[in-house]
Amino acid sequence: MKLFNTLTRKTEQFLPLNPPKVTFYSCGPTVYDYTHIGHLRTFVNNDLLKRTLEYAGFDVHHVMNITDVGHLTGDDDSGVDKLEKGAKKQNKSVWDIVQFFTEQFIQSIKRLNIVPPKELCKATDHITDMIELIQKLEKRGVTYQTDEAIYFDTSKFLNYGNLSHQKIDEKIVQARKEVYSDPNKRNPVDFALWFKCIGRFKKHVMRWKSPWGDGFPGWHIECSAMSMKYLGDTIDIHAGGIDHIPIHHENEIAQSEGATEKPFVKYWFHSAFLLVDNEKMSKSKNNFYTIDDLKNKGYDPISLRYLFLMTHYQKPLNFTWEALTAAQNGLNTLRQWAISLRDSSTRSNLYLEKLEKTVNYQKQISDAIFDNSQFPQALAVLYEMLKSNIPPVDKWDILMDFNHVSGLKLDDFHKVIIPQSVTLIAEKRNQARKRGDFDTADKLRDEISKLGFTVEDVTSGFILKK
Ligand code: AMP
Ligand code: ZN
Questions:
Q1: Three-state secondary-structure class, residue 117
Q2: What CATH number corresponds to the domain at position 361?
Q3: Which positions fall inside the tRNA synthetases class I catalytic domain (predicted)?
Q4: Which of 40, 64, 174, 201 is 20 to 30 A off residue 103, Cα-Cα?
Q5: In this structure, is residue 284 part of a structural domain?
């Protein structure tokens, strides 16, 4: 199996430290707002990687954090506390906010058929681990204290900047753009390990006792503490979105390696971003979508997983409703195939020997998946295989194998399957509407309802429902 490693910028042979075990940490959500389809792209890509590793025979130990400690709006210690901001906006306590959005996150990943991590750990349950790690760093002489915080001294860590391949001077220029900076911070790229509840954080709600007085942890320290606690000093894979490369992940490396003097992570796996109509998602632009928004418009949440599968994880993905409609239709087609092949799934002696052609298709699909997660290519071969003349029982086997590694729930037979004949009538009706021929459109709608379905018009086309 091959994986692109952000650290080396190369696609490398994947060789875990202690096979068949694979230690895997992925950065989870900050639960101060809704989990949106952008977050879900990264979480699905991580899930596809995990399923692929298991498909290859590895035994994956997966840990994911939930950031329920308020960290600041700027990744670089600037700005205000995200949780307190969210709480104020919604007139709720920070604890209510955390609970509400944690549940929404768990519900969202369930709807997308994401396999839950072995440990889904909350930052607030690991404050002691973080304090111990900071004390370890203090003993090694790589920290300093100001009136406001305990900082990691980046000048003591020679490899700082290796992950993002940025020169330290470039980083300093970027860091100087901070809105607020502690006047006693020695270097703009130094980062807080612990904030004290004095000065600008005097009234901070979430606070814990510590050797440095009441305070709260900096954001980055939680991932180092939890990764090392559950998975050991050096792990095989660490995953997240590309936005985390220059600050969060760079800082995780500095803290962890600063404490242990061992490599923190062997392979760094990063997902490119999801855009909506070629723009960054934001509430003010009204292009901020959650899984419930998709469901309310009549889409099966798994259609989003299908959409993600169609674009390689390292390429940006532009979300449009047209693309989601196409993904929903693609999913329906595969489910239709599953239904029609199901009856041929009993293997007769005649088919015990697989044809060379069958073995080839199977190999092409797994080769694509094992080659740095080339799911779009695997999907193309899957369609070619379904249309080929290999025995139906072999098609069924390959389809179910793909189903397992892709998580598309193709064997969820209770899901309503829209027959191709009904989709064809709906397409004709859509054409009629577009040319203004409403008589024909109405007649075709009646035809569809006689077959037991309703058709709903949406901006991107139509949606059929039983
Ligand atoms: P956050 O709660 O902001 O820390 O995000 C949780 C995860 O989602 C991180 O791994 C982010 O990199 C990722 N993420 C956030 N926004 C997007 C987006 N628009 N597209 C892809 N991944 C994202
Ligand atoms: Zn993290």
A1: coil
A2: 1.10.730.10
A3: 15-328
A4: 201
A5: no
